[in-house]
Amino acid sequence: MRNTTRLLDVLDRAETGPIVEEEMHDMMTIPSVMGGLLAEFDVRLPKPEEAVVLADDALADRVWEAGLKMAEQLGVFCLSTSRRILFTPDEIATALQFAPTEVTVGQGLDRATERKRRVEDTRRVFIKGGGVGTPLPEDVYLPIHQSYAQEPLIDAMINCTLETVYGREPRGRSPWEVLLGWHELELTKAACQRAGRPGLGLGCVENSVTEIAELSATSWGGFSPFDWHHVAMISEFKTDYFLLTKVAHLVKTGSIIHSFYNTIYGGTVGGKEAMAVAIVGGCILMQMVYMPATHSVSPTHPFFGNTTTPQILQAIGIAQQALARNSRLLTDVVVTPVGGPMTKTLFYEVAAQAILATVSGACALIGPRSGVGTMPGHVSGLESRWMAEVAHAAAGMSRTDADALVRQLIEKYKPDLEARPYGRHFRDAYDVERVQPKPEWLAMYEAAKNELRQLGLRL
Amino acid sequence: MSISEPRLTEIRTQLKAAIDDGDKDRGVQLAANALAEGITPLEFFLDAIQPVLYEIGEAFARLEIFLPELMRAGMVVKALHEQVLEPATLRTPSAATMRAGVVITGTCQGDIHDIGKNMVSLMLQVNGFDVTNLGTNVAPRQFIEEARKRKADIIAMSSLLTTSMPYMRDLTELLKGWNVRDQFLVVVGGAPITEAYARKIGADGFGQDAVRAVNVCLQLMDRKRAGLPAPALSQEMLK
To answer: Average pLDDT over chain A, rounded to whole?
Structure first.
């Protein structure tokens, strides 16, 4: 279903759909549609103290139905034209019917295939390791990416952003963005080369905050069609010509599109129930408008910026189950802990979300975006190793067993979140020249591993 | 106080119910009735609206209510101001104290993140500020032009991207270059923004999240009204 005809259809509707003011879309349409759907489909989640990993198939199916209807009723609002891009139920059904159930990223010996997974699936989750857009100082950009690329459990890498380019402070929507895109390419490719994995699929162009870096760096000698190229859906359920320009470019260059949508907990859509429905509806709408191979969701806490608070975990879990049970869509989960390198909190948070996502049928895990991705340089490859090991150990686990484990982990990290333990810089956690974890960081990792083993995880 | 405490408590309860229901007409009628009973507009603002909005703000800070509820509260309060309180105070010098201040909000150039900034805008609104939300991808010149037009007290900028942060500095430099720096207070916030960065670019305030941003704006306005300059940005101010 991904072709020029479909693209033209989207662009036509962005110019002919019903006109509405943005404020109306935000303030009236979304709360009204969401409120109606939660009531119609009786979407109610228990208190997190009762269960975080829910094992209620009927509820998951109702979340799916509500999300599907939300996509039909809401469509996507195009900021550039102030119009709604709408689709009929038949059009949505057809697009979902032909969505890909697997995608191969990367090249040569390093290519890897992400496949559809189901709830409590015994198959491994695909691992997209990396700091997910975390800003990095230029001088450690390469070794930090090497620290991820050299981890054998990583199937593909997701890039970070650059704080500076050639020592200058870059600005979005300017010539600097072109240089940023190419610098990202040069350094991440070099990191993969140094790690001996030159064909690793790269999540890019992370520095393309507008369409400029994507258009420039996905070209001759740049990022390849086999990398996975990001296109965001603006929260909530919005796009614009700049994002659609990316899509047009990626469709015409035959590049793999990865779309993402980060709804805000307590934001326009509302609380945890609405967030679950929004995740489902958002993935469907991204499939309609962006024609991606893969989708990711990273609902964000309004004050902590993380994805690991119990309410958010609950919503992610039930939404993933809804998508896994009812669709072909390849849906990924971004892991964003508050904890950063050299903190125990990070291990607990990442483990909780990795277990929840794995048993809920997520196809891939992305991250972790340690320290909520805002502290420059507060990321390291060991965190992705941990995420992968826990996820693989959780494959095939029942939701009930996973719930007991996840709730124990939440008890361990919940009291620490208020202090925002963003941890330490990569330089403190790794020997930068040898690109290896320092003994102290490695010892913390081993201790966390032993602790999880004692809790019953087969690590 | 021109009205009894029990009656005031009753008004607060009814106002809270009208706000919770998002019922603008009921809120407007309630305000009109209270004024007819002899309460002054300023008393209604200070003793009825402010305590109720404080309660709502605290509930949002605890995530017991969400943005749609805040929106409803904002709409009711706006209607109260526009239809009852402001017309009634046009003839009195106390009108200015009915607003906590005038704020221009927006997400910086090159950045399309919307929701966090909207949360700040709504929290400011429910705390009595007159807010103009310019949306996303707002150029420094646009912030300043709108601030001049609206005679704003505060320009509040949000950025979630490191590549948009330089535009915050552009704004403070433009204000200085145009010799209007002392006309506006500048508050910055967003995931990658730190207190140190805010100080570095010469901002007057830094709000780590929506709740703290409102507190910073309130403190800055208190100082402005007292004729004091904005304090040097410090952690102390953020407590």
So the answer is: 96
